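Lab notebook, bench 4. Continuing the backlog of folding jobs that were queued last week. Each job is logged with the same field layout so the records can be merged later without manual cleanup. Today's entry covers Alanine--tRNA ligase, a 915-residue chain. Filled in by technician R.K.

JOB TYPE: sequence-to-structure
TARGET: Alanine--tRNA ligase
LENGTH: 915
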Amino acid sequence: MNTNEIRCKFINFFKSKQHTYVPSASTIPVGDQTILFTIAGMTQFKSCLTGEEVRPYTRATNAQKCIRVADLDDVGKDGRHCTMFEMLGSWSFGDYYKKEAIEWAYEFTKNELNFDLSRFWVTVHHSDDEAFQIWEKIGVPTHRIVRLGDKDNFWAMGPTGPCGPCSELYLDQGEHVGSCAEQGKTCAGPGCDCDRFLEFWNLVFMQYNRQEDGTLHDLPMKSVDTGCGLERLTALIQGKTSNFDIDIFLRIKQKILDISGHTQKLAELSKQELESFNVIADHIRLLTFTVADGVHFSNEGRGYVLRRVLRRAVRHIHKIAPNWPKNKSFLAQLVQIVIKEMGEFYPEIATNQKRIEDAIFAEELRFNSTLDIGLAKFHAFIEDTKNKHKKVLSGENVFILHDSYGFPADLTQILCQELGFQADLDSFKNYMQEQKQRSRTEAKFYKFDLDDSPWIEFNPANQEKDKSFSGYFLQATTIKENHDVIELPINFSQIKKVRQLKNKFFEFVIENTPFYPEGGGQVADNGWIAVQAANSKNEFEVIDVRKTASQIVHLLKHIEWSSDSAAPLSSTEILNLFGQNSKVTAFVDLTLRTATMRNHTATHLLHKALQIVLGDSVRQAGSFVHSEGLRFDFSYNKALSNQEIKTIEGIVNKQILKNISIKVHESVPLSTAKEMGAMAMFDEKYEDHVRMLEVPEFSLELCGGTHVSTTGQIGLFKIISEGSVTSGVRRIEGITGFNSLEFCNKLQNQILLTAEAIKCAESEIVNKIHSMKENSKELEKQIHILQSRIVNTQIASLVANAIDLGNNIKLVINVLETNDTKEMELLCDRLKEKPATIAVIAANIENKAHLMVAINPSLIKQYKKLSAGQIVKQLSEIVEGKGGGRPDFARGGGINPEKIPVALKKVVEIIQLAI
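JOB STATUS: finished
OUTPUT FIELD FOLLOWS
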């Protein structure tokens, strides 16, 4: 069986057991800030396993694309580690438990994989008698059921939370396989890390909730989470001891062989060459999938991981193809073979082929351009380290290679090891931390869920309603603070819980909130909550709204309390304030909401316009929509021309002028939306049923945000800036509505002021400026002629009064009264033309010492030690600065102009030592 057949066989088997097939999630984990990448099949089901989320199915199966880079340095050296791999999985969310999980795993192993059961072993947790008995009952001999401890057979999400025992399935690869056999030792069986017994499937039984004190409490809902690595399973089925020898990798490596120009076959490669082939084959899979999912090369986070991986791959390309042209991408040519092998099951990589190739092409060439310079710098650092009789490259040097030449620290470490050195990575981390500290700015928003203040519960939680937004279509009913608002009563039954944070800040949870929570790039609504209690009237400003896994939380600020005078309220006081006898009213600020809606709908029009002008491979890479404007990031590798920007603006405004009625499609099955061609964000989490926004005959996108009802309500769309965010990502900033009008008015005013300043009509500004520039050039010519005449007069006097150093050598020393270094340069150039002449010119310009030295070339040839660079360097030290340059001309200076006379007194002495 090949890799694709095994994947389909696994999924179809569990579908036959009434499991719902759930497509692979993105490699970018959604809603989980604890990890950079999706690292396991259970990542997208974490909230289901903890009970925070309820889905319409209780059984699931899938094949998940996963990324793990913790063991990056080991990839290619052994047959087990891959940075990108597929995890086959099956799950039960409070449905079946150990019996079915074990029986189905055994059935699939026996009947579908046709493994030799005499080589089949399992492990269970030493305390899990139930699992042991189930395995025994279905026919596994007891001597092949091994009990192991917590280290091997107990799984947990973290130090606290859901956890439980697990049972692992192994296949004995034979006595001849593994490090124990190589060392003449006897393998201890499953659990030994020699690789003879290879674990290929893990069944996790989540039945406990670990408390902070370490005690285990039974979970109310027991679940099953199983994971089976596809590459490892395929290797076992195909009789291979290395993942890199399975069918899918062999075809990628053959393509690498073809591109590299190697004449030998794969089987004839040396061990070192094979390692490089394995690294490149592995890394191109990671790059293809992550770029397709919307990750961009950068110097932080996920983007930095991609950059490290690509540069590691390039390093191995230079090993197998040392003469590969630096203006040509090797890796981009491998994207096609990855798509051919995996694109049928993962269509997103085929859909985004051009964007993937363009991004990899640009990044590889960017690294190639600095690689030689960086390597030269690295070897210079190594030479310096040798001279100091040390074997460890300093953290400062590692940091410079990282910061200035783009060398990831692990690449520098590898280069060091190849030469018998080590890199001081601990010190490097300190330098990185200092750099982060310098650039770190304080966050401007309150961080939800980081406060441990107690909640006061009012009504039972209802997850569906507590995280529901009901305010899509609101009309203003009154005016508040000069803003249009809608006044909405909040019934006591809607109030779920409240807690006071610090002084005047509160968190507030209600069901079916009319306030839009931040999401999808759109900022949260603002507004007010008024509370009329029995003996008091309180008003709170709604300053932020965020959605968590189970609820929408409103951050409130009491308007009348001062931050340091208000004592925390007691539980009773909070209960009375928001209690059944109080009148609670919400006021949503529709002035800000409407301005935000204009900008949000404009981003949809902009997205489509970008694809029309720049190509379908353009994809949204991020957005930020608020009342003042919009920011839209998109995948593209070069700056937009003025004409392209003008065309994009025109397309958007044409749709606005059509005043098209916008259609909202509620609760559309996600699969249907994709079939309809709806565009989606890579790192947004979507439910099984989604909301679509359609601008008929123009744009269709998944979107949960708020929008205008017709395009005409946007007003005027104006692009105010376009630039680069990071490698392969551009950013457009734009404005709409009244902000566009204000922008145009300011622009018009600037035009009027400019016309007045240069005394011409508005229509003649450009011509007048061109005329002024021509006049300026003519004046500069006249000034240059006058300066030359002055200099010629000075030269005659300076040469006549030059110091005679003997051998017909003349030394001119002069302190020039000038505010322009160009005048100094002109004087030096003319004096340098004089036979056997040395000129030293100084000036005090803006309270700083400026020095220049010029020497006639004939003297440089005659006196090998004579150098303008060396002279100016010594003089600059006297004026507390530095300098340098060529043997015939150099410049320098310092912060102490008062020492210019002292420096000039040293000139004769310095020159005489050289001649």
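OBSERVATION: The chain has a mean pLDDT of 90.
SIGNED: R.K.
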